[in-house]
Design brief:
Layout lengths: L1 H23 L4 H7 L8 E12 L8 E16 L7 E16 L4 E13 L6 E14 L13 E14 L4 E13 L10 E13 L1
Antiparallel strand pairs: 1-2, 1-8, 2-3, 3-4, 4-5, 5-6, 6-7, 7-8
Length: about 210
């Protein structure tokens, strides 16, 4: 049932995307029209992202986790090209808050640092992206329970892929897939890490 609710949320988001694209169409102006031809990415971005993650691979328990992410991005290099690699790099910093809906623990808070690459084609509002980063955080561990995390301090790895849609010169919405790995790096024995995967939605403001 929860997977069906997640699918319904994605469908609603896509409907919102189509509706919003029409609402923002009148606010584009010539600057936004020209940026779709010339590769002129914004210097800074702020994004709010939300994901619904399911545990898989090695956990003896069925985890379902919500990921709420606040991300700041800084442009770092532009690749001028006529091919599909045309685009630009970004360095990002994210603050992560995760309520655990199903699993042994109850919540996780972390920081993540990484890189994102955006694929930009002329005259297209669609901007595919890939990203990845590493960080650290704290979970309310219960080491006395088999399969639970061994300690509060935990490292994280985040990797994502998806596509953003430019509503206007400053606003974008995006849909993608997020992978998350949580582990304490072998500081406890056993070290039952978590691997999580699920859909992610986001809204970005550029300036």
């Amino acid at each position: 049932m929860k997977i069906l609710r997640a699918a319904a949320c994605i469908a609603s988001f896509l409907a919102f995307l189509l509706t919003s694209s029409q609402a923002f169409a009148g606010d584009e102006g010539p600057a936004f029209a020209s940026s779709m031809n010339a590769l002129e990415p914004p210097r800074f971005e702020l994004a709010v992202e939300s994901a619904y993650l399911l545990g898989f691979i090695n956990s003896p328990h069925s985890y379902e986790i919500g990921a709420e992410v606040l991300t700041a991005r800084v442009r770092w290099g532009v690749r001028q090209s006529d091919g599909w690699l045309r685009g630009y790099n970004q360095f990002y910093f994210s603050a992560v808050a995760e309520p655990i809906f199903r699993g042994i623990e109850n919540h996780y808070f972390g920081l993540n640092f990484g890189l994102r690459y955006n694929f930009v084609q002329p005259k297209s509002r669609l901007v595919p992206y890939i990203s990845g980063g590493v960080g650290l955080g704290w979970i309310d561990s219960h080491p006395n329970i088999p399969g639970a995390q061994g300690q509060d301090f935990t490292f994280n790895i985040l990797a994502a892929a998806g596509v953003a849609y430019e509503l206007s010169e400053r606003w974008k919405v995006e849909v993608g897939v997020l992978y998350e790995h949580l582990s304490n790096g072998g500081q406890t024995d056993p070290n039952p890490s978590l691997n999580l995967l699920g859909p992610q939605l986001g809204v970005t403001y550029s300036f």
